[in-house]
Design a protein that fits this description.
The chain has 161 residues and is an alpha+beta fold. The protein has a single domain, classed as Proliferating Cell Nuclear Antigen (Box), CATH 3.70.10. The protein is built from two helices and eleven strands. The strands form two sheets. The chain has a nine-stranded antiparallel beta sheet, with helices on one face. The longest helix is centred in the middle third of the chain and has 14 residues.
């Protein structure tokens, strides 16, 4: 569905947010020149796991990634200030995507794009739309997996000196 952009440049009203039918979970994250940071982060995480689970809250993007052998665990949080535009409808929004798929798209976009937008108008449909704008405009849609928001438990380790 189309989105209606209001006068506030950091606020987007999604047309499919209907309080009578139930509010859908949606988000739009627009990244400018800092796309290289996100690309490198995702590339590093892809060495640990094939799929990455994100929780997009009011002010940040959070993920906890554990490798398949349960040896390495990484927690990270990207603050809202990293993005040109950060809009979330009905937070938190949970999304899981294949790291290889998004890295393939971002590697094409990172060289020429002035702006990259990650968006899902309805997370329930399990689709992530990636739009890159630069010399030309390209739009990609990748399939996502359902995610309930349950991250691996942090191990309880006693450190004794």
């Amino acid at each position: 569905m189309d989105q209606d952009i209001t006068s506030d440049k950091n606020r987007i009203e999604f047309a499919n947010d209907d309080p009578i039918l139930g509010i859908t979970k949606s988000f739009s994250l627009r990244v400018g020149s800092r796309i290289e940071i996100i690309y490198r982060l995702l590339k590093t995480l892809s060495r640990l796991t094939d799929s990455i689970s994100f929780t997009i809250g009011d002010n940040d993007v959070f993920a906890r990634v554990m490798d398949n052998q349960h040896i390495s665990l990484i927690d990270f949080q990207l603050r809202k200030v990293l993005f040109e535009s950060f809009v979330v409808s009905n937070p938190p929004v949970n999304i899981v995507f294949n790291a290889y798929n998004i890295l393939t798209i971002l590697s094409r976009s990172i060289k020429n794009a002035k702006r990259v937008e990650l968006m899902s108008q309805d997370v329930e449909k399990n689709k992530l739309i990636i739009t890159s704008e630069g010399r030309s405009r390209a739009e990609y849609t990748i399939e996502c997996e359902p995610f309930e928001g349950n991250y691996p438990e942090l191990p309880k380790i006693d450190f004794k000196a």
